[in-house]
């Protein structure tokens, strides 16, 4: 079907005037998220103080003369921003500031993600896809989902694709191969320092032959360097760059939404390509049902699906099971905290 004949898809980006928003919007308008045959209608949601900056971004979007860009609307009204939306990218969040307790942070984000969830419930397209990027991403996604009782829970997800991409890049560099020569990495659990980047079912292609990753890199490097480096990469970027990751976070958000909407497809050897996504648990792998946790995942272009039979292999990496349990326990404690605060 030609571009002229396709109905535009509405994409809402919150926090549109922020750093990730600026790195995200131009790529969406260029067709990198929904494909080069799908026109997009952009809705930019911001707080009143940042509306002028968002208007400036909208002016630049117009100046790019993107063939796929149908329209850009800027608003501070969630009802307008989510009206009929097909793709909701929830980036804007309240960052933790000096002296702020964890409860204060959750409360402040509850004030953002509760109303946005409600607005999605009332105004979004029935088949809306939501990804939460703003931290604490998994729990913010849970808050939004709990305020949208008419939207299937599976339509709310959180971003762990950045952690996944970081893990793939670090393993490829250590093994001396390209990222195309790595597959089967999984990020489990929370987008936080407790996450478990798991190599126990990963493979690396060396000299045209696929080998278990843990035969190519040793378990000491995995335990002492790989896992902590991936889990703390966000903090490392903040300390080196002086600001939270922005372009890489935007790129991972595009990867997550594109794979969800268009499918994960086949991997390097023709088998189903899997990635990592924080999606609602159906109880798989001992993760309590309803938590939004990162899993090995595929999409056929409809729903994300949790890939079975990939439990962390304790024999290949002693302590793997405990690592999964620890990150899930953190998600449970965040869920309990927001319940106590009356946010879900
Ligand atoms: N999940 C991930 O992998 C990942 C990676 C990097 C950053 N992040 C998180 O993404 C978030 C955004 O990062 P950033 O660098 O773009 O921050 P930023 O401070 O540059 O931008 C955030 C924007 O959100 C806006 N905002 C705040 N409340 C809003 C609301 N209620 N509605 C609409 N907009 C609102 C702010 O005005 C601001 O323009 C942060 O929470 C950050 O920690 C997540
Ligand atoms: O913003 C942060 O705290 C870090 C971010 O989530 C990241 O992983 O880069």
Automatic annotation (TrEMBL):
<keyword id="KW-0560">Oxidoreductase</keyword>
<dbReference type="Pfam" id="PF02866">
    <property type="entry name" value="Ldh_1_C"/>
</dbReference>
<keyword id="KW-0816">Tricarboxylic acid cycle</keyword>
<feature type="domain" description="Lactate/malate dehydrogenase N-terminal">
    <location>
        <begin position="11"/>
        <end position="150"/>
    </location>
</feature>
<feature type="domain" description="Lactate/malate dehydrogenase C-terminal">
    <location>
        <begin position="160"/>
        <end position="338"/>
    </location>
</feature>
<feature type="binding site">
    <location>
        <position position="135"/>
    </location>
    <ligand>
        <name>substrate</name>
    </ligand>
</feature>
<feature type="binding site">
    <location>
        <position position="96"/>
    </location>
    <ligand>
        <name>substrate</name>
    </ligand>
</feature>
<dbReference type="InterPro" id="IPR015955">
    <property type="entry name" value="Lactate_DH/Glyco_Ohase_4_C"/>
</dbReference>
<dbReference type="InterPro" id="IPR010945">
    <property type="entry name" value="Malate_DH_type2"/>
</dbReference>
<dbReference type="Pfam" id="PF00056">
    <property type="entry name" value="Ldh_1_N"/>
</dbReference>
<feature type="binding site">
    <location>
        <position position="166"/>
    </location>
    <ligand>
        <name>substrate</name>
    </ligand>
</feature>
<feature type="binding site">
    <location>
        <position position="102"/>
    </location>
    <ligand>
        <name>substrate</name>
    </ligand>
</feature>
<dbReference type="InterPro" id="IPR001557">
    <property type="entry name" value="L-lactate/malate_DH"/>
</dbReference>
<feature type="binding site">
    <location>
        <position position="109"/>
    </location>
    <ligand>
        <name>NAD(+)</name>
    </ligand>
</feature>
<feature type="binding site">
    <location>
        <begin position="15"/>
        <end position="21"/>
    </location>
    <ligand>
        <name>NAD(+)</name>
    </ligand>
</feature>
<protein>
    <recommendedName>
        <fullName>Malate dehydrogenase</fullName>
        <ecNumber>1.1.1.37</ecNumber>
    </recommendedName>
</protein>
<dbReference type="InterPro" id="IPR022383">
    <property type="entry name" value="Lactate/malate_DH_C"/>
</dbReference>
<dbReference type="InterPro" id="IPR001252">
    <property type="entry name" value="Malate_DH_AS"/>
</dbReference>
<comment type="similarity">
    <text>Belongs to the LDH/MDH superfamily. MDH type 2 family.</text>
</comment>
<feature type="binding site">
    <location>
        <position position="116"/>
    </location>
    <ligand>
        <name>NAD(+)</name>
    </ligand>
</feature>
<dbReference type="GO" id="GO:0030060">
    <property type="term" value="F:L-malate dehydrogenase (NAD+) activity"/>
</dbReference>
<feature type="active site" description="Proton acceptor">
    <location>
        <position position="191"/>
    </location>
</feature>
<dbReference type="InterPro" id="IPR001236">
    <property type="entry name" value="Lactate/malate_DH_N"/>
</dbReference>
<comment type="function">
    <text>Catalyzes the reversible oxidation of malate to oxaloacetate.</text>
</comment>
<feature type="binding site">
    <location>
        <begin position="133"/>
        <end position="135"/>
    </location>
    <ligand>
        <name>NAD(+)</name>
    </ligand>
</feature>
<dbReference type="InterPro" id="IPR036291">
    <property type="entry name" value="NAD(P)-bd_dom_sf"/>
</dbReference>
<keyword id="KW-0520">NAD</keyword>
């Amino acid at each position: 079907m030609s571009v002229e004949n396709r109905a535009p898809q509405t994409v809402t980006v919150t926090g549109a005037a922020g750093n990730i928003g600026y790195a995200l919007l131009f790529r969406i308008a260029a067709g990198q998220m929904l494909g080069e045959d799908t026109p997009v209608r952009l809705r930019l949601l911001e707080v009143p103080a940042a509306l002028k900056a968002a208007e400036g971004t909208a002016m630049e979007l117009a100046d790019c003369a993107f063939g796929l860009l149908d329209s850009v609307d800027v608003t501070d009204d969630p009802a307008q921003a989510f009206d009929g939306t097909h793709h909701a990218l929830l980036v804007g969040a309240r960052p933790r500031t000096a002296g702020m307790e964890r409860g204060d942070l959750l409360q402040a984000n509850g004030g953002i993600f509760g109303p946005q969830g409600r607005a999605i419930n009332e105004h979004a397209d029935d088949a809306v896809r939501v990804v939460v990027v703003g931290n604490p991403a998994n729990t913010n996604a849970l808050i939004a989902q709990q305020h949208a009782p008419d939207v299937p829970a599976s339509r709310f997800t959180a971003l762990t694709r950045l952690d996944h991409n970081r893990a793939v890049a670090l393993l490829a560099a250590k093994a001396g191969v390209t990222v195309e020569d790595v597959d089967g990495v999984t990020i489990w659990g929370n987008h936080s320092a407790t996450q478990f980047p798991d190599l126990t079912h990963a493979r690396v292609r060396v000299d045209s032959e696929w080998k278990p990753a843990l035969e190519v890199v040793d378990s000491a490097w995995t335990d002492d360097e790989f896992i902590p480096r991936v889990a703390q990469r966000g903090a490392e970027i903040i300390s080196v760059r002086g600001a939270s990751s922005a372009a890489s976070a935007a790129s991972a958000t595009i990867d997550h939404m594109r794979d969800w909407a268009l499918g994960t497809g086949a991997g390097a050897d023709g088998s189903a390509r899997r990635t990592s996504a924080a999606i609602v648990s159906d109880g798989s792998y001992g993760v309590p049902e309803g938590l939004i946790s990162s899993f090995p995942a595929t999409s056929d272009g409809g729903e994300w699906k949790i890939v079975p039979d990939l439990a962390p292999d304790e024999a290949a990496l002693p302590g793997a099971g405990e690592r999964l349990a620890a990150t899930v326990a953190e998600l449970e404690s965040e869920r309990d905290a927001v319940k106590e605060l009356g946010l879900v």
